[in-house]
Amino acid sequence: MKNGVIIQYFEWYMNCNQNLWNDISKDAENLASMGITAVWLPPAYKGIGGKDDVGYGAYDLYDLGEFDQKGTIKTKYGSKDEYLNCIKTLQNYGINVYGDVVLNHKMGADYIQTIPATKVDWGNHEKETSGEEMVKVATKFTFPNRNKKYSDFKWNWTHFDGIDFNAENGEKAIFKFKDKNWEETVDNEFDNYDYLMGADLDFGNEEVREECKKWGKWYLDFTGVNGFRLDAVKHISAVFYKEWIRFLREQSGKELFSVGEYWSGDVNRLLNYINETEREISLFDVPLHYNLSSASKDSNYDLTAIFNNTLVKNDSTKAVTFVDNHDTEPGQALESFVDRWFKVSAYSIILLREEGYPCVFYGDLYGIQKYDIKPIDEIKTIIKLRKDKAYGKQNDYMDNKNCIGWTREGEDEHIDSGLAVIISNGISATKKMYVGTKFANGKFVDALLNVKDEVVIDNDGFGDFKVNEKSVSVWIKK
Q1: What is the architecture, at CATH level 2, of domain 106-201?
Q2: Contacts of 406 (CB under 8 A, 6+ apart)
Q3: What is the mean pLDDT of residues 372-399?
Q4: Mean pLDDT across the stretch 217-225?
Q5: In angstroms, rounded to a whole number, what is the distance separating the alpha carbons of residues 424 and 1?
Q6: Are 351 and 390 spatial neighbours (Cβ–Cβ below 8 Å)?
Q7: Is the pTM of this model over 0.90?
Q8: Rounded distance, CA 244 to CA 203, Å?
Q9: Active-site annotation holder among 11, 100, 231, 329
Q10: SS3 215
Q11: Where are the beta strands (DSSP E) in 152-235?
């Protein structure tokens, strides 16, 4: 959808009292009127942590809050019926729903198995550090309380290629199972980054691939989601994901927009994964996030370099841009939170330009209670500006390292559309920029109310647009 906006509707620490699905249903009308066109929902299935599991400790992918497993029927976010109702409600307001898919690993096995394995080095997963030994591992998943509903597939150690815990003696190490090899088309950090956590799925095993495809079809048919957010793709075979998504598109006849989380600041690794999946999935623009974070922490950051080495610059049609997410927020392993003073500028950068598909973070829009981080209200204004004004030819003014800008000339089918954005990380400034002769002699005002003056557009379609010190202004027709 043109000028679409995704919202990631959760953050790591949210205390939703197993009621998030209902809360989102109530917020659906508001999201639609704001200009949100898609919602990325958190993982909906039962995790090892029961009602406290954010969803990434995946235990039973067929339990969407329906069975008494891990000490709870509802997940952290609610019940199966509430989830299905949430999806339907969002779709009734014209909002697409992206389900979060966690296929890399399983946790919380029902039984321990004793098997032969070899330890590998934490810093080089291809380097063995022990001979073969017998270990006790949590690899047998039978889901007794689901009692074969939806699927009778039982997981055992042959469906995994490694784990990081020996239940025999409590040793924490990476144990590679006998006769197993790590996947090939994965990230090459630690020489091979197939292994991440938990019982690691072996996508070289045909039973595993078939069960994942069968589950994907069931999940799609059962929930009616419009697409997917794919977790931890740098640890999962690109060949498998290409096969998986093609299978589901074929079976459903739907577009199924899919975005993968490939956590790397190196744009070449992202471009490589896109090629390896033969362009079947988009990726989050992690390098752009890091640039935005750096810009917020260095008042002398060269703003003209904000798009250097980013996915949105190198392959914009496959880039999902974001400012922050549940992994970058305070207290998380990948913490790299964009400083508050620069947030509105960062959101202007992802929401008001023509390239990329932007994703807004719940923690920025609604706040993060645990750290007393307040909502940033201007984000709502910027989303609305994207919906109403951010159309037409884009003209860039990336000509000053402490002050950048761009304009959009607008389109006839969106009345009074067009805008001018100017961002400063230093002193207040003025920049002469072209918005189009159709605005000649008209007046522009700052939609963010940071600058009180009006700007008069000259006969040639130019205006002298202002910005305050360390601020952003978005100018629109008065």
Answers
A1: Beta Barrel (2.40)
A2: 352, 353, 394, 395, 396, 397, 398, 420, 421, 433
A3: 98
A4: 98
A5: 31
A6: yes
A7: yes
A8: 11
A9: 231
A10: helix
A11: 160-163, 174-177, 199-201, 227-230
| pLDDT surpasses 70 at 88 | yes
Is 115:160 a contact under the CB 8 Å cutoff? Answer: no
Query: Residue ranges per domain, the chain?
Result: 6-104+206-388, 106-201, 394-477
What is the C-alpha separation between 55 and 462, in angstroms, rounded?
A: 51
Backbone angles phi, psi at 227, to 5 degrees: 180, -170
Q: Which residues contact 188 (CB under 8 A, 6 or more apart)?
A: none
Structure-token pair, residue 475? 């100018």
As given in the structure block, the two tokens for residue 352 are 């008001």
Decide: residue 331, CB within 10 A, 0-12 exposed, 13-18 middle, 19+ buried: exposed
Residue 190: phi and psi, rounded to 5, are 55, 30
The tokens for 11 are 């953050």
Q: E strands within 95-157?
A: 96-101, 105-106, 111-121, 124-128, 133-140
Asked about 355 being catalytic, the answer comes back as no
Fold for 6-104+206-388, please state it.
Answer: TIM Barrel (3.20.20)
Q: Which of 399, 356, 351, 347 is nearest to 375 (CA)?
A: 347
Cα distances from 8 to residues 38, 42, 332, 363, 365, in angstroms, run 9, 8, 17, 9, 10
Give the side-chain half-sphere CA count within 13 A for 441: 1
Taking the C-alpha atoms of residue 124 and residue 70, their distance in angstroms, rounded to an integer, is: 34
pLDDT band at 299 (very low <50, low <70, confident <90, very high): confident
Q: What's the CATH superfamily of 394-477?
A: Golgi alpha-mannosidase II (2.60.40.1180)
**Which one from 261, 276, 302, 354 is the annotated catalytic residue?**
261
pLDDT tens profile 1-32: 689 999 999 999 999 999 999 999 999 999 99
- Which three-class secondary structure state does DSSP give residue 419? strand
Q: Is 261 a catalytic residue?
A: yes
- Compute the distance between CA of residue 219 and CA of residue 222 in angstroms, rounded to an integer: 5
At residue 394, the pLDDT reads 98
Is pLDDT above 90 for 231?
yes
Write out the two tokens for 467. 């910005």
Q: What local confidence, expressed as pLDDT, does residue 2 receive?
A: 85
The two three-digit tokens of residue 361, written as one number: 């973070």
pLDDT tens per residue across span 39-50: 999 999 999 999
pLDDT given at position 1: 64
